[in-house]
Amino acid sequence: MVLETGIAAFLLAITHLFAEKMKDAAIPRSKWLSFAGGVAVAYIFVHLLPALQDGQAYLQQHNLGVSILKHPVYLLTLLGLATFYGVERLAVLSSGSERAAKGQPSRHSIRTFWIHIIAFSVYNALVGYLLIHNGKKSLTSLLFFTVAMAFHFLVNDYVLFDHYRSIYRHKGRWVVTAAVLGGWLAGMLVDLPKVWIYILYAFVAGSTILNVLKEELPEERRSNFWSFASGMLVYSILLMFS
User: Fold this and answer.
1) Which residues does 206 contact at the CB level (< 8 Å), separation at least 6?
2) Is residue 23 included in any domain, yes or no?
3) What is the per-residue pLDDT across 5-62, written as a single tens digit (0 to 9) for each?
4) Using 50, 70 and 90 to split pLDDT, how confident is the model at 135?
5) Cβ-based burial of 189 (10 A; exposed 0-12, middle 13-18, buried ≥19)
6) Range of the domain at 174
7) How many domains does the chain have?
């Protein structure tokens, strides 16, 4: 599935490059962002988390350093959530965050910017890698994963642009875009043990949950509940009957 995963990686990469065009769409941003978040959350809860039960059993059956824990795969999911919560708080509290202030970012915010970009680049690279090593090796599974992550990348792109504006548009966007393709290339060259695939999936699941819900829950985000619910409902139905 080299061709198929390559196309998927390319589509995910260009999602970042063209996400800004959505601001001119006929549908208000609050609605399509909420719909995108609903799709991503549906994929995590309906498809990915149940699939991690196999990873839970695998980690507990093998002496892999985490088997002594009661629920290792879910603890790793929690770790992904906590990691991106920490990165997000660092960005919000930065004195130069564009979300809170205007003008040229301070040196402190430049450091924060690169920490944020590196974190999302690692996340994108993991997603790119998992396009190759998605476990099921089926076109349907690849399609659902790609669509869900593409919607999720729209949300992430909005978050990063909202924090950093011009510096993200001219520098950061290209880094996170390249990270997807880099992750896919790494997947072509490196075949990690099965345990690491489960670990990566768990981390991505936790990160996705945090990145979506932190944009939906705060009042100032002007999210749209019905769009969010529609995204969850539509994608959940597609996943259940696929």
Assistant:
1) 76, 77, 78, 79, 80, 81, 82, 83, 84
2) no
3) 999 999 999 998 887 766 555 456 668 888 888 898 898 888 888 878 877 777 777 6
4) low
5) exposed
6) 2-15+28-240
7) 1
Q: What is the pTM of this model?
A: 0.85
Q: What are the residues whose beta carbons fall under 8 Å from the beta carbon of 143, sequence distance 6 or more?
A: none
d(CA 242, CA 238): 6
Read off the amino acid at residue 131: L
Rounded-to-5 percentages of helix, strand, coil across the chain: 80, 0, 20
Give percent of the chain with pLDDT exceeding 70. Answer: 81
207: left (phi over 0), alpha (psi -120 to 50) or beta: alpha
> Which residue from 153, 135, 148, 143 is spatially nearest to 7, judged by alpha carbons?
143
Residue 4 near residue 139, CB atoms below 8 Å:
yes
Cα–Cα distance for residue pair 107/122, rounded to 1 Å: 23
Q: Would you say residue 21 lies in a domain?
A: no
- Which amino acid would we find at residue 27? I
pLDDT tens string 143-200: 999 999 998 898 888 888 877 888 898 999 999 999 999 999 999 999 988 888 888 9
Task: Please tell me the predicted confidence (pLDDT) of residue 103.
Answer: 47
E strands present in the chain: none
Residue 221 is assigned to a structural domain of this protein: yes
- Of the CA atoms within 13 Å of residue 172, those in its CB half-sphere come to 26
